[in-house]
Amino acid sequence: MGEATLHAFRLHENLYFIGTEAVSVHLLDTEAGLVLIDTGYPVMRETILENIRALGFAPESITAILHSHAHVDHFGSTREFVALSGAATYMSRVDDEIFNGPTDLTWAKELGLRVIPPFHSDVLVEDGDEFTFGKTHVRCLLTPGHTAGTLSFFITLPDGTVAAMLGGAGFNTMSTPFLSAYGLPATCREDFRRSLRRLSAERCELVLGNHPGQTNTLGKMWKAEEGKDVRDADEWGCFLTSLERGLDKLIERDPIPAT
Ligand SMILES: [Zn+2]
Fold it and tell me: Do 182 and 103 contact (CB within 8 A), yes or no?
């Protein structure tokens, strides 16, 4: 068995985990430069940079930053990485509008963090948009629930392996205290269920979590360090099913009050 602590490692082919135990950040090493998926909390910036360098890459070579959704733990270091590399930023059009809208829904206040000034992403992603970075292909699906504009990614690696990430799995934003505090519609819960079912129809051989605890990233690290294959064709379905069960439990213990 490998080291107990989660650290940067290669998941498969040109796909790497470079986040921390708190939040996932992923890196794709492509012929079109380095592609990042999310950038963690602001405080994670130096760790992420160290991780990129430790794997033998140059942070200045980041050419694209994809965001799963507009919460502070996923875009917290984006401004600094863009300043360093000139990378183009990607976010769903829906979450970009919310991020730049009148109400701060980035979860910074709830976590006691400073609010980051909003920015517009260079590429406003719509449902079904596809992007090619060298021999790596990324298909984006709009999967509302955790936020209205959460993006899920299906990444086809050069060897044909499809890695996928549900862009937001937390129930925190679907709780009645949060929804009522901001006057948000409770329909997000059924949106989330529809998103899970839509995703379950898709092929995935390697599940990426946008928080490592959601998809046993530590276990994948141990496997990878033993030289084993981290791919598992059954994991995606099990992961999505367990989330739908979690949604049922949320609805049971925290019902939407009748109006
Ligand atoms: Zn979130």
Answer: yes
In terms of Cα–Cα distance, which of 186, 190, 163, 161 is closest to 176?
186
Instruction: Tell me which CATH code domain 9-253 carries.
Output: 3.60.15.10
- Residue 200 Cα to ligand 1 middle (Å): 21
**168-204: pLDDT as tens digits:** 999 999 999 999 999 999 999 999 999 999 999 999 9
Average pLDDT over residues 7-22: 97
Paired with 17 in beta bridges are 9, 26
pLDDT digits (tens, 9 = 90+) for 138-149: 999 999 999 999
Q: Yes or no: say if 161 and 177 are a contact pair by the CB < 8 Å rule.
A: no
Q: Answer whether residue 1 shows pLDDT above 50.
A: no
**What ranges in the chain are assigned the alpha helix state H?**
45-54, 72-75, 78-85, 93-99, 176-182, 188-200, 217-225, 235-253
Domain ranges in the chain are: 9-253
Output the CA 6–ligand 1 centroid distance in Å. 21
CA distances from 50 to 17, 53, 76 (A): 13, 5, 16
Dist. CA 108 → ligand 1 center (Å): 10
0.90 cut: is pTM over it? yes
User: What's phi and psi for 74, nearest 5 deg?
Assistant: -115, -15
Distance from Cα 222 to the centre of ligand 1, integer Å: 26
The alpha carbon of 178 and the centre of ligand 1 are apart by a number of angstroms equal to 13
Distance CA 80, CA 143 (A): 27
Distance between CA atoms of residues 8 and 25, nearest Å? 9
